[in-house]
Structure formats: C-alpha cells, structure tokens
Amino acid sequence: MSENGSARTPRHFGRRALTAVAVLGIAATGAAWSGCGDDEVDEAQQEAEEAAEEGQEQAEEIGEEAQEQGEEIGEEAEQQIEEGTEEAQEGAEDEGGSGGGSGAYGN
Asked: Cβ contacts of residue 7 below 8 Å, gap of 6+?
C-alpha cells in the first residue's frame, strides 16, 4: 500500500517511470546546454587570463624601461655634479691663486 492507503498498481509504477525518464531527459538536455555554456565560460576565462598576463608583461616592460631611464638620469646627474664640482674647484683655485686683493673691488 502507498502512504495514503491506496494499493499500488502497475499503472502507478508506469507513471513514475515515465516521470523519471522525463526528468532524466530534461536533466540531460540541461547538462548538454550548460556544457555549451561552460565552453563559452572557459573561453572567456581563458581570454581574461591571457589579457591579464599581457597586462602584467606590459607593466613589467614599462617598469624595466622606467628603471633604465632612472639609472641613465642618475648617471647623467652624477656626471654633471662631478663636472660642476671640478669647475667650482678650478674656479676657487684660480681666485685663490691670484693674490686675492686686487679683484673686482678696485682696491
């Protein structure tokens, strides 16, 4: 007997079997459709990952270029400082060796 007290008939089992087959058919169709969607999702995810990798590579290249430019600027600045220091020392030696008193003040 069933839960409600009626006897189970072969017809009842047939309906249940048809219902189960229908549910499985719908589930299989849904799985197939979702499988197609998964391919699109996987493709979109792969494209996003590739774009992220390209962006990372570009950022690294920009960082390397900026570092190289910074090093070049630093080297140029050091060279200019050295040249300025040498010129200042030469200027100080020239003024110091001239006797000092008869310069631009007109003593």
From this structure: 1
More confidently predicted of 15 and 23: 23
pLDDT band per the 50, 70, 90 thresholds, residue 26:
confident
38 in Cβ contact with 32 (< 8 Å) = no
DSSP 56-107: HHHHHHHHHHHHHHHHHHHHHHHHHHHHHHHHHHHHHHHHHHT-STTSTT--
Helix (H) / strand (E) containing 10: helix 10-97
Give the closest residue to 54 by CA, choosing from 62, 65, 42: 62
Contact 7, 1 (CB under 8 A): yes
* Predicted structure pTM score: 0.42
Element holding 5 (H helix, E strand): none
